[in-house]
Write a structure and sequence with these properties.
Elements (H helix, E strand, L loop, with lengths): L1 E11 L5 E7 L6 H13 L5 E6 L5 H13 L6 H30 L1
Antiparallel strand pairs: 1-2, 1-3
């Protein structure tokens, strides 16, 4: 028998209804490996974790993995997104250069 670690996400929508979804965090593995992964995730402070059995020929893990990928991948990255990120990086670089110049000026005087 193999086991995997999953997390349950709970939230309230705009109308006040409870909504839940489950995402898998590990691939099916031995009980020892799954328990140690569960211990590490709990040590990181992640809540709502579960140790789940993965019987032979079970399709639950694959279905959960595909469903979590659909939620995570909302849209493709566009050229406009990249341009905005590059502009932000250029702005940060200018701020760093100004800070270095100010420090050099203070050390020089």
């Amino acid at each position: 028998m193999k086991y995997y670690v999953s997390k349950t996400h709970l939230s309230l929508n705009a109308t006040g209804r409870l909504s839940a979804r489950e995402t898998v965090l590990t691939k099916p593995d031995t009980l020892t490996a799954a328990k140690s992964a569960l211990r590490r995730y709990r040590a990181l402070g992640i809540e709502d974790l579960h140790l789940c059995e993965h019987p032979v020929n079970s399709r639950r893990w694959g279905a959960l993995d595909r469903a979590s990928n659909k939620v995570r991948k909302t849209r493709k990255l566009t050229l406009a997104d990249v341009a905005a990120d590059l502009a932000e990086l250029d702005k940060l670089e200018e701020l760093k250069m100004a800070a270095r110049a100010a420090i050099a000026e203070q050390e020089g005087s």
